[in-house]
Design a protein that fits this description.
The protein is of the alpha+beta class. The chain has five helices and twelve strands.
Length: 233
């Protein structure tokens, strides 16, 4: 069972939870940035002509994104190179607004991720890579999106793999306790990987060769034939 003994967690404890969710921009993030102002023509150059194209499909938005390079920079029109890696979206918006205000009065900047995805693999009903449109997803939500764990999934030791400062780090979460709600890893970040390992029962069957019964039957049949031949020879 998930979240066992959760009846011992009071509403006051949930209210005092200090877990914060502040996604930061990372290298290889693809950012969709739009700029608006009182005079739309004044900000046209910052929108790459997107506002003049009318209806644009979601699939084609990648073309208009700003890919954060390995140094954490984007190259923005007129402004030039801007270092955004390590910033929250709010901080990046403030930085761009300050830079753009040199060219346009009172600009309004909006940033969305175009490649906010998490991978869920292992013992779930539908493993795969999932796009998170609202840019915020918790571990229980991600598992539900993948169709829940199978009966063979190890609920005591779910592995979270995350890139931190260019290095892969692993964390382990026990879904059978309500402590998961207060974990600093409760909310997933872009490009996180959740791996649900098989439980002991499933892992033990993976070492079992399904051809063994057939092999034993063949040997038994061969021995029987040899015995009959020797007996009636």
């Amino acid at each position: 069972m998930y979240f066992q003994n959760s009846e011992n967690i009071t509403n006051a404890m949930y209210a005092q939870d200090n877990t914060e969710f502040n996604t930061v921009i990372l290298p290889n993030d693809n950012l969709f940035i739009t700029v608006s102002a009182v005079n739309p023509e004044a900000v046209g150059i910052f929108n790459s002509g997107l506002l003049n194209r009318g209806s644009v499909s979601v699939a084609s938005l990648d073309v208009f994104g700003y890919l954060v390079d390995q140094k954490g920079n984007i190259n923005f029109p007129l402004v030039g190179e801007v270092h955004v890696a390590g910033l929250t979206k709010k901080d990046a918006i403030l930085l761009l607004q300050k830079s753009i205000s040199k060219f346009v009065a009172d600009p309004i900047v909006n940033i969305r991720y175009l490649n906010y995805k998490v991978s869920i693999i292992g013992e779930v009903a539908r493993p795969g890579v999932y796009t998170v449109t609202d840019e915020k997803i918790s571990i229980p939500q991600a598992i539900a999106m993948a169709g829940d764990l199978t009966i063979y999934g190890n609920r005591h030791n779910v592995q979270l793999i995350r890139m931190v400062n260019g290095e892969k780090q692993s964390y382990f979460i026990d879904l059978t306790t309500p402590a998961v709600f207060f974990s600093p890893y409760y909310y997933l970040r872009q490009n996180d990987i959740l791996y649900i390992a098989p439980n002991t029962a499933k892992a033990s069957t993976s070492t079992y060769n399904p051809n063994i019964p057939l092999l034993m039957s063949s040997i038994s049949l061969a021995l029987t034939i040899i015995t009959l031949i020797i007996r009636y020879k």
